[in-house]
Please model this.
Amino acid sequence: MLIATFPAGSFATNCYVVAPEAGEECVIIDPGQDAEAMVYDVLREHRLKPVAVVLTHGHIDHVWSVAPVCGARDVPAYIHPDDRDMLADPAKGFPPQVAGQLLGGLTFSEPDDVRELADGDTLTLAGLDLVVDHAPGHTPGSVTFRLAAEPVMFSGDLLFAGSIGRTDLPGGDHAAIMDSLARVCLPLPDETAVLPGHGAQTTIGRERATNPFLKEIAPLDGPHRGL
Model:
């Protein structure tokens, strides 16, 4: 398994390039601000061919470069329908004053080929099976992606090392994110690697034992069943 990552732009959003191995097809996860050149460096270094861009949610720091990356390689983008409108209008993810400061004068558009995600989907892409779990709270359309064959979860801004995603932006919901953590994260095995949208990699076991937010909740029936 090849998982290459780098922090993109001033938001230091983790962009991931995932492939079975070097020289194969790959999937790009969350190409953020100024990610395009760094994505291409990873593709060249490992001789990879992208077949899709998948997005954990619609905030601009995670989708900034999705249109140019998809357009240059003629690949589709996948996003949950509840966040799709932020691809073309990222200001919807921020209070008006903040949106003006961050995005004033900039325009964004959807890629030509956008495909919508649903809870429980399994995306078979680049020789990988990515399981989609809808995990609202940070945004209404937040999702996580799990590798069906490996104990790895790309958590977006749901779960971080020692923390969780913020819920004070438009569409945020603290009760919803706590439910998502209980349903999507806590049922997973301790050894599951958590590759978050920002910051360092962690594991479910480490977060179960040390994350103060997870200590507040108990597991709900979740996505571990049947895998």
Remarks:
- The helical segments are 36-46, 60-63, 66-73, 85-88, 96-103, 174-185, 204-210.
